[in-house]
UniProtKB/TrEMBL annotation:
UniProt name for this protein: NADP-dependent oxidoreductase domain-containing protein
Keyword terms: NADP, Oxidoreductase
Domain NADP-dependent oxidoreductase: 20-84
InterPro entries listed in its UniProt record: AKR (IPR020471), NAD(P)_OxRdtase_dom_sf (IPR036812), NADP_OxRdtase_dom (IPR023210)
Lineage, broadest ranks: Eukaryota, Metazoa, Chordata, Craniata, Vertebrata
GO molecular function, one term: oxidoreductase activity
UniProt cross-references to Gene3D superfamilies, sorted A to Z: NADP-dependent oxidoreductase domain (3.20.20.100)
Pfam families per UniProt: Aldo_ket_red
PANTHER family: ALDO/KETO REDUCTASE (PTHR11732)
Length: 94
């Protein structure tokens, strides 16, 4: 994702990738699969990782991102991590 047209400009002048890799998964899928999926997404040039507290995979996402930083695939400043936080469990979608 090199060209500016694949990014969205934020009101502070920074750019965020227009495509994000979503981290939602069904409950029957083990969280450990998230680590593998995020690593593959980063290798496939996703730089925007979209998550939410309710998904309960934030730790796994962090482990995967740190792993790809450690192996030199990306720098921390290359990754745009977004998350959603609903005000209460009753406000979460199911």
């Amino acid at each position: 994702m090199n060209s500016k047209h694949q990014y969205v400009e934020l009101n502070d002048g920074h750019f965020i990738p227009g495509w994000g890799f979503g981290t939602y998964k069904p409950q029957e899928v083990p969280n450990s699969k998230t680590i593998e999926a995020i690593k593959i997404a980063i290798e496939a040039f996703f730089r925007h990782i979209d998550c939410a507290y309710v998904y309960q995979v934030e730790e796994e996402v962090g482990l995967a991102v740190r792993s790809k930083i450690a192996d030199g695939t990306v720098k921390r400043e290359d990754i745009f991590y977004t998350s959603k936080d609903w005000p209460s469990p009753s406000g979460c979608p199911t």
